[in-house]
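Example 9 (inverse folding). The structure is encoded as follows.
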């Protein structure tokens, strides 16, 4: 949810005997003492930290030195009116736009000159994010992911929306793009329909892993196309740790921020248990 000037959001569970879905009492005993906050972040260009932090995205990004991040994968909050601060006042659309502008400005600062951003959004805000990204970055492509999910077509009152926009933007025109990883070699396209380098992604089902939000294949494709092993990846809105899990599977260094303590704990568990 969009961040507010006060505090990170409180846990969803209030009774420690009834933890959040996917977390057991043993999990809480293990991971609660290990939570890191923005106060635990201390980075220099020659001494970077990996890890996940209970922090607002802006607070976390401001702790990262200039030009040290290879790739940012961001799935911003979908609804500016979904979040309320402690006084119960909701963000206006203008405030939401300004908030997005601020974290994108920080993202531009921390990215290397060869770095890139993948920004995931629903169609309602896609045009806004194109405009915002264009203020800082070079927009290279709008990827349309066919997020086909199980739906009850008989209950739909209008067209079923199965598309999800992913904006690919770079800091400069000198950026990393691994052609072979996405179905191209130096002599032209690999002759396989599902591996053509296209901005229309139809080969990734919209079914996440248990306790995840989005499928791992989606983030694995992004990581392979726009990063190498040991590159530093940032997810400013981590939720249950989907990007962090994909980074661990593929040998990338990960920094993630999340304001919801329950989501953070679940992300810690998922990433920790990944072999």
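The amino acid assigned to each position is listed next.
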């Amino acid at each position: 949810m969009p961040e507010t000037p006060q505090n990170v959001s409180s846990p969803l569970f209030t009774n420690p005997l009834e933890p959040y879905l996917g977390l057991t009492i043993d999990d809480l005993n293990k991971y609660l003492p290990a939570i890191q906050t923005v106060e635990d972040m201390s980075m220099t260009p020659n001494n970077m930290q990996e890890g996940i932090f209970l922090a607002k995205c802006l607070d976390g990004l401001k702790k990262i030195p200039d030009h040290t991040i290879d790739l940012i994968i961001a799935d911003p909050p979908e609804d500016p009116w979904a979040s309320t601060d402690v006084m119960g006042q909701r963000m206006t659309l203008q405030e939401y736009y300004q908030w997005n502008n601020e974290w994108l400005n920080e993202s531009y600062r921390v990215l290397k000159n060869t770095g890139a951003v993948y920004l995931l959004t629903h169609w309602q805000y896609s045009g806004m994010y194109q405009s915002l990204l264009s203020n800082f970055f070079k927009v290279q492509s709008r990827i349309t992911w066919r997020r086909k999910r199980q739906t009850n077509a008989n209950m739909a009152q209008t067209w079923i929306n199965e598309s999800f926009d992913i904006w690919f933007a770079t800091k400069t025109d000198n950026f990393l793009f691994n052609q072979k990883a996405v179905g191209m070699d130096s002599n032209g396209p690999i002759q396989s329909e599902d591996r053509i380098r296209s901005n229309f992604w139809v080969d990734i089902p919209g079914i996440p892993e248990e306790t995840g939000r989005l499928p791992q294949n989606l983030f694995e494709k992004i990581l392979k196309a726009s990063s190498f092993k040991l590159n530093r990846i940032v997810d400013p809105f981590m939720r249950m740790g989907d990007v962090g899990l994909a980074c661990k599977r593929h040998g990338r260094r990960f920094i993630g921020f999340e304001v919801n303590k329950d989501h953070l704990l679940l992300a810690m568990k998922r990433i920790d248990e990944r072999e």
